[in-house]
Every structure is written in structure tokens, then in C-alpha cells.
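Give me the fold.
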Amino acid sequence: MGLHLKRKKERVYLLTLVYRLSKTLFFLSNKKKMSLFLTLEWIFDRLANEESFKYFSYEKHPLRFHTIKFIQQHINSSEYVLDLGSGYGDMSNKIAEFSKKVVGVDYVSGDVEIAKSRHQKENLEFVFDDAFDFLNECKDQFDVIILSHIIEHIDDPEEFLKKCIPHTKKIFIEVPDYDKTYSNHYRSILKNKLNYTDPDHVWEFNREELTSLISKTGLTIIENEFRFGVMKFWCETHLVKR
């Protein structure tokens, strides 16, 4: 929901203080000042985002709530789901509420143990394994593969998606949206060091780039959404009978 605001805004004294302090930086060039402000924006945006996951429960966090809602539209109670990079298992646990069975796979053994201790359902299983190894050895056929904040960590995301295709009919992809704000593009032009969503990321996809990548793998995009700083795509594989 958006906002309908009064024309006269309530004064925020911290804003006034910071704005006045910024005027004392006259000895810096416009480029250096802009770079400084972009760096500060990145730092406080990250702090606020991290704090949000402490403040909101998983079910009530705006990011997670809308992701689960978007996922649920394309999964039914008869479908078998593979959640690659399942972490603490929160998403796998929610998906198990409206699917036949969910297998969560993660390569961090501690995360898998936490997932097992937090979430116990008859139709929910957690496996400690590398995603590539699991796919290479897996003989099961899944209806859905969940790739939530996974492919931006992988050196060759195109090859990884191609490995997923033979195992499923549908793939859900979610990654950070580089186009969520013009500030990211400013940072790129100024070559700021802080221009990523996570230090382990090797990719920060813009919208055209990710759409092109998905198309190159042979997947068909059936729905997408760009909200809350993330891109979400539902894709079909060639295994779907039309």
C-alpha cells in the first residue's frame, strides 16, 4: 500500500542535522561527496535490512510474506518440491503446508541441523549436500525446484539452471533486483567498492540480464514480479505437457 501524505511534513531533526553537516564538506569534490553519500546509504540500507529480520517474524516479514504468496499460486497439494539452498528451512517449512512433499538441500551442515530441529513435518525432509552433487546423483523427479537467492552465488548460473531442468517441470527463481534503485547505477558509474547485496555474490543481475539468461537456458517464463527489491520468476521446463 502506498502513502497519501500531507503537503507540510513533520520536521525530522536528525535529517536537519545531517543535512547541515553535509554542507560543511565543501572541501570535497562533487564526485567524492556523492561517493561518500552512496557508501553511507549502502551501509544504513544493509543495517536496516538485517535488523528487519530480527524485528519481523518469518511469516510477517514483508519480503517473505509476499514471496510465499507468489510461490503458492503455482504449487498445489499434489506436487513434489525440491528447495535448493534451503538454509534454516523456513521457506521449505512454509511450502510443505501446501504441497505434497518438500526436500530441502543445503551445503552448510550447521544450517541443515538447525532446519531439522526447527521444522518437523511428515512431508518435509532436509539433506546436507552440495546442490550440484545432489542434482548429479538424484534419480527423483520433482514437480518444482525452488531457487531462492541461489543463482547469484554461482559462477555459471546458466549451466546450473540447465542441470536443474531435467529434474523438474517448474522452477521458481528469486534474486536481488539491481534495478531496484538508481543508486546502484550511480555506484557502478563511480566504481564504488560497496555495490553488492551480499559479499558472497558473484552476480548482481539487472532485469534484462536475468530475463535473457533464463531464456538462453530454454526455460519459458510464465510469470514474473519486481517488488521489494527482488525479482521473482516462475518458469516452465520442456517437461511440461501443454
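Residues 76-178+198-236 form a domain with the Rossmann fold fold (CATH 3.40.50.150).
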